[in-house]
């Protein structure tokens, strides 16, 4: 059948969609853009902000208007939309439902066999509950769900409690990626610091990966400051682990972090940064910050602005607070939209200044860049510190790691 898959939101959602796509391709289905009138549209939703939920609803309606049978899954806020034909809880559900749509009496048995093969090609976690994915660009899901309750967050509601992929399955996925010529992987999940498979935690998983695979570069997805250990910091002395963390901050004000129920302070966060920069002075930190959290005063916002300068982030993703249903923060006193918009603009501007300052520290350094694609005559890729670099060359540098001298743009 002609299928479309649209994925909103985080890398984890994208990784999961890739696994669904790969499994369905193995069953002989093919994928077209949504505009090409697919028989079935699979919409993998995101509900992390009000905007994302609205976009999800728009896409579902658009797919239905084009005449597709609509399967919706992922973090789906509104399950009762009349345009949704089927709500899928798991990857296995999607494959089974596609089978139900595609089957015909004459081919029934071959479909039964092949659908079982398709589901078997998913990992054990995906078959039962969640989906484990790898991408051609090396995104490996190691964990899903979350045991915390940050007051603004709806994710635990959609993804449930933390559940980890067994270490041997992670290793198998990485070796598979290596065999496909992938040089760099990113371990991803909802909160990968909660990784726990038997006695294996995130640090021992990394040690296991370093020992049992030859993958050249390893990155981690978003990290939670409250669960960072000295052992995890120590293992990053290994040059195969890239000196860049996306260390979730959310606010640079301790009173707001408390209202968010984040379980750490700015002082604790700074200690982590200092320890990693003691090991490698150019260690790079990116982060997410929510602006206009309920009750955020001018003073609290100024604390965040000052803190961004203290850390010297290489990139800040700035999000205006978005009220989510059934969350404690949703019931708190809200900040006026106009104030939020002004603060977002100020923080984005500051983040640009801070990011350029960080990048200037790499000036004149020779760094190994993994080139991904060519645009306007330049090869583009990332340094170990996750700084985007471009290099003019007529040679084919795709998927090559080349040492180049960094000159800030
Ligand atoms: S750590 Fe907090 S923000 Fe992250 S998924 Fe869990 S509850 Fe949500």
Brief overview:
The protein is of the alpha/beta class. The protein has helices spanning 11-26, 50-65, 91-102, 108-120, 124-128, 155-159, 167-179, 202-212, 230-235, 254-260, 266-279, 298-311, 337-360, and strands at residues 2-7, 30-31, 40-45, 69-74, 86-87, 139-141, 143-144, 163-164, 184-188, 196-197, 200-201, 217-220, 244-246, 284-291, 315-320, 366-375, 378-382, 388-392, 401-405.
Major sheet attributes: 5 strands, parallel
Which ligands appear in the coordinates? Answer: iron/sulfur cluster
Instruction: Name the CATH homologous superfamily of the largest domain.
Output: tm_1862 like domain
What's the architecture of the largest domain, going by CATH? Alpha-Beta Horseshoe
Instruction: Give the neighbour order of strands across the main sheet.
Output: 2-1-3-4-5
- How many domains make up the coordinates? 3
Provide the low-confidence segments as ranges.
104-116, 123-136
What's the average pLDDT? 89
General form: globular
